Amino acid sequence: xxxxxxxxxxxxxxxxxxxxxxxxxxxxxxxxxxxxxxxxxxxxxxxxxxxxxxxxxxxxxxxxxxxxxxxxxxxxxxxxxxxxxxxxxxxxxxxxxxxxxxxxxxxxxxxxxxxxxxxxxxxxxxxxxxxxxxxxxxxxxxxxxxxxxxxxxxxxxxxxxxxxxxxxxxxxxxxxxxxxxxxxxxxxxxxxxxxxxxxxxxxxxxxxxxxxxxxxxxxxxxxxxxxxxxxxxxxxxxxxxxxxxxxxxxxxxxxxxxxxxxxxxxxxxxxxxxxxxxxxxxxxxxxxxxxxxxxxxxxxxxxxxxxxxxxxxxxxxxxxxxxxxxxxxxxxxxxxxxxxxxxxxxxxxxxxxxxxxxxxxxxxxxxxxxxxxxxxxxxxxxxxx
Length: 385
Prior knowledge:
With 385 residues, the protein is of the alpha/beta class. The chain is built from 14 helices and 13 strands. The protein has 3 domains: 3-158, Rossmann fold (3-Layer(aba) Sandwich), CATH 3.40.50; 174-267, no CATH class; 271-365, Diaminopimelate Epimerase, Chain A, domain 1 (Roll), CATH 3.10.310.
């Protein structure tokens, strides 16, 4: 059964995806930075699952359920009950935000507290294959670990490093300064934010492998007794080891370069990060600005494209070119700059995915030619003809 996980873009969200990935093969992980993006993302998933014949598992972790997310849960359950029993999907929602309970109640889904632990609430949607759990005393990472039987019935307990990761993230995310794991959680959080988007971008097949590997390696150091300063001192070596594994066998790799320079060469060849528009411009979504500058230069140097554009979630666009067309592109998006380096803004002001960015950029950058038959004078010309 194919598995997709939608999770928050923070330490807890990545901790949850790391835990799930240790117990189950997850085909695709979607990291959602803003709760305002949850609606469009789950709507896309619902439409996809409606068309999908084979049953799939969808896991939602740490998304802070708002009205659109609750509506999705109800619609998923209704859709699922209409499918044949052997083709029904499974939805597992694991969250810990108190506001999520309010939103579920607003749509007539009442909490059913666990008799042994009242902070753990289950919600009945009418569909036995839709499981919704809200636990105010556990972070999503810990919920994913303790509730692993919901998505991986045969799973064991995992190893000591995983338990260390769960404890550190739980202490940090719940801001429990009284716990001895709290400082370790802070160290993980700093390392996470310093590396989550600057080396292997979201959307690349290596991304979750890299971030999950980083968290697990640092958890191992915590288990060995290293303090936050010790973790920081070892971080560079940990990252280098992960990159060595990723780049193993790459004929273009040069170990004499920095980790970012080495990885940039591989990313510049990526078909997942860069999608061609109709005019040959390559478009990427949500890349770190430094990474985009480095990778776009390699793309153009290799001859893959003469112009590259990066779209950020907040709606800003960065154009790079080697034929003086970057400024031409930026001007179509109320922007300006240099001939080979310019920027602008989306008309809508935001984008939530690579597909959404393409849908907004393509018609503005490459508007379709006017149809002469659609002219108000076309009918008159036809009569005269």
